[in-house]
Backbone:
């Protein structure tokens, strides 16, 4: 079945790079997404990658996709305290716009 | 544009009560959906709609009803609330059923 897995917690020092990893099972996924959720807020779309791409860069964010291993990662360069949040990986699968979400990775940034 | 709006932000119900969670978008998006978020889990799809007058079930539809009489609004109804429905509910919309979804701020529901 469809499943998306993420590690639950990541702690980094301010200024370092953060790498959040995600694995998925559905090889027919068309798009893969990263959403950010700050405390008490909704989900904010950070970036997405089409399944025929290997990499996408957007300012401090780099998304890497290894389709063979069904592995997706989000790298945040020069991590700041404002990056502290929960990051959700999601895959789009199926004929309609169905998103399968991971449980989220809580990123804590400390001085 | 206000984007995707949800009301109320918080709600407390007693078991057996009914209520409607409101969701509206002003972007003329055809596709709208409802998710619930539970601790330690990702969001799970409850119901979705590909356009006015068309709705269908997602992963966890039991206990919820939806309707889509207009493009802008997609209310979620709990007919007889149960403690298992305590959750945070998110509404999302996209231009079509293949485009990126944008989420509302959420409704935190507690059922006692």
Residues:
């Amino acid at each position: 079945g469809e499943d998306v897995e993420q590690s639950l917690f990541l702690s980094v020092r301010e200024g370092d790079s953060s790498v959040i990893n995600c694995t998925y099972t559905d090889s027919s996924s068309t798009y893969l997404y990263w959403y950010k959720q700050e405390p008490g807020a909704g989900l904010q779309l950070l970036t997405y990658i089409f399944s025929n791409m290997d990499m996408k860069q957007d300012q401090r964010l780099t998304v890497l996709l290894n389709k063979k291993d069904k592995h997706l990662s989000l790298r945040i360069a020069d991590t700041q305290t404002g990056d502290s949040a929960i990051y959700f990986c999601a895959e789009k699968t199926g004929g309609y716009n169905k998103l399968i979400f991971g449980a989220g990775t809580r990123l804590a940034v400390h001085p | 544009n206000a984007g995707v709006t949800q009301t109320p932000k918080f709600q407390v119900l007693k078991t057996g009560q009914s209520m409607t969670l409101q969701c509206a978008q002003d972007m003329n998006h055809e596709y709208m959906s409802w998710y619930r978020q539970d601790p330690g889990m990702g969001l799970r799809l409850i119901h979705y709609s590909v356009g006015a007058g068309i709705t269908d079930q997602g992963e966890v539809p039991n206990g919820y009803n939806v309707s889509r009489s207009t493009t802008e609004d997609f209310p979620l109804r709990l007919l007889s609330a149960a403690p298992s429905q305590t959750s945070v509910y998110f509404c999302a919309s996209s231009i079509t059923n293949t485009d990126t979804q944008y989420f509302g701020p959420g409704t935190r529901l507690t059922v006692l």
